[in-house]
Specification:
Layout lengths: L2 H14 L8 E5 L6 E5 L6 H16 L3 E5 L1
Antiparallel strand pairs: 1-2, 1-3
Protein name: Lipoprotein
Keywords: Signal
Length: about 70
């Protein structure tokens, strides 16, 4: 019975250690005005969320923004 809490703790730590390879936040900069825009993926991180995220980035790039930072 004492092993159950240890097993639970290990499972929780393993879940915290899994990171997504994809970035989920992008900052875009308009170099002429200094204005910054942000595109993010929602908390569920579904394929649909990533498609909307990529479309957000493309939209700002078409307006003249450049990617400043992604994480």
């Amino acid at each position: 019975m004492a092993k159950l809490p240890v097993l639970f703790l290990l499972l929780c730590l393993a879940g915290c250690a899994s990171f997504s390879e994809k970035h989920s936040r992008t900052l875009l900069l308009d170099r002429s005005t200094g204005e910054i825009q942000e595109c993010t993926v929602d908390a569920w991180r579904t394929d649909s969320s990533y498609e909307k995220y990529q479309e957000c980035i493309r939209s700002f790039e078409q307006q003249g923004y450049t990617i400043w930072n992604q994480y």
